[in-house]
C-alpha cells in the first residue's frame, strides 16, 4: 500500500470543497477489486502516519478494507487558511468522512467527538504517532477474529447480525 503523491495544482472535485480544500476520490483499474466491508479515515499530513489532531488535521487518508485487503480510496486535504480561526470547520470535516466507520487521530475535542458519533463515525484517539499500515493490519485481524469493539459494531451495522436468530433459538423460548 504505497501512498500516492498528489499534484498540488489539481482542481478540487466539487465547488463545495474549494473553500476548505480538496477531496480526491481515487479511481482504480476496472480489474482491481476494491474492498467493500467498510471505510476508515486516518488524520495525517503524509498519508503514512496518523500524526494529526482531528480539528487541525491537514488531511485524511481514507481506506476501504475487509479482512483480507485494504486500499487507499480517497484523500482529503484542507487549505491552511481553512484551519485557523474557522469555528464552523467541524461540520465540513465530518461531512468529508461520510461513509467511514471510524477516524483515527491523535486527539479530538469534545464537540468533534459528539458530532462524529452523531454522524456514525467512531473517533479513535491514539497516544502516539502510529503507522497507518500497522493499524490497517490490526483492523484486518479484528475483522477476521474480532477483538476491537468498533470493528465488531461496524461489521454488524454493515452486514447485520446474521447470527442473532440462531442465538435466540439456542436460548429457547422459555422465560
From TrEMBL:
<comment type="similarity">
    <text>Belongs to the NifX/NifY family.</text>
</comment>
<dbReference type="InterPro" id="IPR034169">
    <property type="entry name" value="NifX-like"/>
</dbReference>
<dbReference type="InterPro" id="IPR051840">
    <property type="entry name" value="NifX/NifY_domain"/>
</dbReference>
<keyword id="KW-0535">Nitrogen fixation</keyword>
<dbReference type="InterPro" id="IPR036105">
    <property type="entry name" value="DiNase_FeMo-co_biosyn_sf"/>
</dbReference>
<feature type="domain" description="Dinitrogenase iron-molybdenum cofactor biosynthesis">
    <location>
        <begin position="47"/>
        <end position="139"/>
    </location>
</feature>
<dbReference type="Pfam" id="PF02579">
    <property type="entry name" value="Nitro_FeMo-Co"/>
</dbReference>
<dbReference type="InterPro" id="IPR003731">
    <property type="entry name" value="Di-Nase_FeMo-co_biosynth"/>
</dbReference>
<protein>
    <submittedName>
        <fullName>Nitrogen fixation protein NifX</fullName>
    </submittedName>
</protein>
Amino acid at each position: 500500500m504505497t501512498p500516492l503523491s498528489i499534484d498540488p495544482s489539481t482542481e478540487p472535485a466539487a465547488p463545495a470543497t474549494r473553500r476548505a480544500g480538496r477531496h480526491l476520490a481515487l479511481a482504480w483499474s476496472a480489474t482491481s477489486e476494491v474492498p467493500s466491508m467498510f471505510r476508515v479515515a486516518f488524520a495525517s499530513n503524509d498519508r503514512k502516519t496518523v500524526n494529526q489532531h482531528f480539528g487541525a488535521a491537514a488531511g485524511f487518508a481514507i481506506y476501504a478494507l475487509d479482512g483480507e485487503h485494504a486500499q487507499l480510496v480517497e484523500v482529503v486535504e484542507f487549505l491552511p487558511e481553512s484551519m485557523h480561526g474557522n469555528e464552523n470547520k467541524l461540520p465540513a470535516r465530518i461531512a468529508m468522512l461520510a461513509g467511514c466507520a471510524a477516524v483515527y487521530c491523535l486527539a479530538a475535542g469534545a464537540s468533534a467527538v459528539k458530532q462524529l458519533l452523531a454522524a456514525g463515525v467512531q473517533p479513535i484517539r491514539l497516544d502516539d504517532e502510529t503507522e497507518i499500515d500497522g493499524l490497517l493490519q490490526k483492523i484486518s485481524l479484528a475483522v477476521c477474529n474480532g477483538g476491537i469493539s468498533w470493528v465488531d459494531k461496524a461489521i454488524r451495522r454493515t452486514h447485520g447480525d446474521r447470527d442473532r436468530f440462531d442465538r435466540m433459538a439456542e436460548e429457547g423460548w422459555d422465560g
